[in-house]
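User: Please check token order:
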Amino acid sequence: MGKTYRSTKALGFVNDKLVYMEFEGKSNVSLREPLDTKLPFYQGWEDFIELWKAKAPAGLGSILQSGGFAWVWMPSEKAFVSSAIQGIVIAMLFAFIVLLMATRNIVQATMSLVCVAIIIVWVVGIMVMKGWQLGVSESISVVILIGFSVDYVIHLSADYMHSSF
């Protein structure tokens, strides 16, 4: 997706002997990119480090990388995505229980839950059609969407069951 370049920034000599080397590399990947986009760049740097360790002269085999906030944020992004999926499942189960208590009708509760599922599938489907990946902001949006759709459907369903029709 982007270019990567590597350059030597600083060499450290003591008594004409190379004792350290600072190495700077930049990847053309944004902090805001989703995990799936950043992961290949991260893995590319990890592969480079392993290659360096294998070929480095004695004493220079110790190397580490620091990708700043982009690399540090990746486990949190993964947690957001899995939490969004767990949130969907938990909210659907909880919504069914609340709908069952509010309507006292298993058919109405099931139909309402299907409506919530359709809302979620449509919105996530549009996100996929637009080419969006499930990143941090999308994960938070999906959780908010679940709340709104459940709230809306529960009120409609309860009002329907208590109407005079």
